[in-house]
TrEMBL record:
This protein's name: DUF956 family protein
Source species: Lactococcus protaetiae
InterPro entries: DUF956
Lineage of source species: Bacteria, Bacillati, Bacillota, Bacilli, Lactobacillales
Pfam families: DUF956 (PF06115)
Length: 119
């Protein structure tokens, strides 16, 4: 779906993980989330209107610090991972658009072990 973005609220350098890691620019607009590839030959930009984002999974350290990676869960039952040094600012603005209740922590590596000990 092509979005016509006349206004860009926030931009940051980032990466998308789709089999291979591709560099580009993350753009947040009133219409949605957009990833623009640095390499123009790859194809069209990735565009996700706000209403198609079901939730955003973010990596949080044991100390409570937000990591650089986050994943968008879409209403098509797909997940796309992104990474940016400015992930905190990006996630704050995404939360303003879709609601902070849709920002969820990803499970830690120790979570399955802890689940096993609870039995």
């Amino acid at each position: 779906m092509e979005m016509n973005n006349n206004q860009i609220d926030y931009t940051a350098k980032g990466r998308v993980f789709l089999g291979a890691v591709e560099n580009g620019e993350i753009k947040l607009t009133p219409l949605g989330f957009e990833f623009e590839y640095s390499n123009r030959r790859i194809g069209k930009n990735l565009n996700f209107p706000w209403h198609t984002i079901v939730k955003v999974e973010l990596d949080v350290s044991l100390r409570g610090k937000v990591g650089s990676q986050f994943g968008l869960y879409l209403n098509t039952n797909s997940k796309i991972r992104f990474s940016s040094k400015d992930s905190g600012a990006i996630l704050k603005r995404i939360g303003q658009q879709i609601g902070t209740d849709k920002l969820v922590r990803s499970r830690s590596l120790l979570a399955p072990l802890m689940d096993g000990l609870k039995l």
